[in-house]
């Protein structure tokens, strides 16, 4: 294993932050897998899963079972990890700009077309190799003017040429679920099975240019521009894994999640199987559209009393939340907007008007535009 330290742009004299990446296996030998934890730095479960993954990957490397390169970034946000404000841990938004750390990643489509578009031809395998090289060069050439842009560039450069990208996050309170794209579902289904995801949400574009889509959606975007005479298969399966809720931090769960990720690495050819491979778990739920995930929005402020836990199958119109005005005593009950899985809810128990309190995943695509929360 090789440890690489990446210095970020210093925002002011006398300060400097660093990002650390752990590189296992042999680059170029086989598939490249990139895994990062806690880009939203206040979401701790991913860091603990990475802690358990690093020892498992070290053991796999010592046993000679790695078939390619696996890059692990155990704490992907050195800026957010230090954001403590009035004794409260932040980490989702950069304090200077207010920007979400998981938004506004660069679209490298035009840069790749300009660099190698004329060189691509009828050989799909060669096209993939040329595009990967161009992606590396385009990411390395991204300009930076701020520390945040420096972090985005560094992370994207580490991941942009990977076959598989896993971005480890969590929700407020939730079941284990993932976000990915329809074009790569054949591989993502293996991931959903191995980590025993309760829900998979699919979208071609979720809005806001999150990290995972910057890595995966450049491939279909290029393919659409190139046309059938220059075939380019979708060559990066990127997924955001939501490791339940913020308080779900335990060694037992993290070790099991890490083992599930390793099982997926075996299934996708990045790790050699054991003599007696584990049986593939069943898919717990067919994928549903991200546009079918409907938020429960508070119409006014007040105390929040949830009537159902995450993971509950609900019917449209079923009561899910009581919102109580502590001054007037008025109670507003919010009902499920659709039939589906009540899969996530906010960790806080007092709301302001307009706040999203929970999410229900239905089977019908009902929303348009930006599909992710702020």
Account of the 3D structure:
Helices cover 26% and strands 26% of the residues. The chain has eight helices and 20 strands. It has helices at 45-62, 109-116, 124-140, 147-159, 185-194, 211-216, 218-226, 251-267, and strands spanning 2-7, 18-25, 32-37, 69-73, 84-85, 88-89, 164-171, 173-174, 177-180, 199-202, 237-245, 288-289, 293-297, 302-306, 312-314, 319-324, 331-335, 340-345, 350-351, 356-361. Helix 3 runs antiparallel to helix 4 and helix 5 (185-194) packs antiparallel against helix 8 (251-267). The longest helix is centred in the N-terminal third of the chain and has 18 residues, at 45-62. The radius of gyration is 21 Å and the shape is globular. The two termini are 36 Å apart.
Summarize this, please?
The protein is α+β, with helices and mostly antiparallel strands and 374 residues long. Helices cover 26% and strands 26% of the residues. The longest helix is centred in the first third of the chain and has 18 residues, at 45-62.
What tags apply to this protein structure?
374 residues, alpha+beta, nine-stranded mixed beta sheet
